[in-house]
Amino acid sequence: MDARFTDEQDEIRRTLRELLGKRCGPEELRAAVDTPAGHDPALWALLAGRLGLPALALPETYGGAGCTVTELALACEETGRALAPTPLPATAVLAAPLLLALGTGAQRAALLPRIASGELTAALAVPGPALATALALTGHDRRGRWAGGGRAGGVQARRAEGGWQLYGQADQVLDGHSAELLVVPAHTGGFARSRVLLFLVRGDATGLTRVRQTALDATRPQGRIQLRDVPAELLGCEDSDALPALARLGDTAAACLAAEAVGAAARVLERTVEYVGQREQFGRPVGSFQAVKHRLADAYVEVQAARSAAYYAAWAAATQAPAAAPTSAAATEATTAVTAPSSATAAATAPEEKAGALALAQALEALRRAAAEGIQLHGGIGFTWEHEAHLYFKRAAGDELLFGPVHRLRAHAADAAHVFEEAGT
């Protein structure tokens, strides 16, 4: 394994950091989150059109850049540094991989080029509190009870004349209020024979109601989706169960989210180091006190460890993704677009390792530590709404609510790797 970044990867990071530094400062950030969509459409047009962020991990066949999860994770790290509110996580990290893995040839040809160009945004309509379970990060529900389990609640699908109709509700969906395409997991077949399939719903579909919800972290806009006999299109074919596809997506998504959290942690730590070097107390900079140095040094070590874990998780996801077993003929076609790794590499990055979940746990913990130190060491100003330190703390708390908590991420990864079973034998 060569841990060095390529020139192309370094250029992605440099260009993106330079652009976000100019277009996503504190004032621009606050203005963006106050818009109805929760992000700046002009900034997203630049990120998608000029830099091609949503196209990074898509095959060239569908207008993508033909890169891997590693490049997408590096882009997420830079957007995380700026806390940039963009549709990138919802569209490129959560929705697009499902379209690529399960979609028919016609569906991929119609949707993926539009996503790659930034013309189309998408969202995975899993209720926020159930997202970590749906992605098999904090547990693995083989019956899909997080989606309603075939009983009242969640989203139900039934056949209608000429297609399918969906009925139900999903709350706290990332970008659910503004995405132009919804990927909706829904139960079909009744309670006794219930199974989860994925459906495509247009943002302007009849019977669809969407409302933006108040979220702890305003840079992660969320929406409530209500479906009342909404016409929907089945993603892929009926024999493609959505649960295994969502579980495979989990580790890839976790690697990108971990990189994003690392970017935010590194940035708030940098700002804190800069501030304590300027703020004086008892006639000397606060940063010159040994106790402050120790606290910042501990936070720095934690952030660097989280960065290493996130990079490894992205590399592991990039090398194992082509080797994942397809769930349908459509998925088989999608996997041929990428060169499969050697058997030794695939074995070394088996899904049981849960590298993404562990990296996400490490990154969320590092972000929480760095954000808390930032607020305290900024003194009184760090507690004010006018200062951006609290935005990083809210990102740490909000992400742990959506994708954690940390102890459950680690516990599930340990269970998947049979750590405690081996220790007890």
From TrEMBL:
GO terms for molecular function: oxidoreductase activity. It comes from the Bacteria. InterPro entries: Acyl-CoA_Oxase/DH_mid-dom_sf (IPR046373), AcylCo_DH-like_C (IPR036250), AcylCo_DH/oxidase_C (IPR009075), AcylCoA_DH/ox_N (IPR013786), AcylCoA_DH/ox_N_sf (IPR037069), AcylCoA_DH/oxidase_NM_dom_sf (IPR009100). Residues 255-331 form the Acyl-CoA dehydrogenase/oxidase C-terminal domain. It is an enzyme of class 1 (oxidoreductase). Residues 6-119 form the Acyl-CoA dehydrogenase/oxidase N-terminal domain. Its cofactor is FAD. Its EC number is 1.-.-.-. Keywords: FAD, Flavoprotein, Oxidoreductase. PANTHER family: ACYL-COA DEHYDROGENASE, ACYL-COA DEHYDROGENASE FADE28. Belongs to the acyl-CoA dehydrogenase family. This is Acyl-CoA dehydrogenase family protein. It comes from Streptomyces tibetensis.
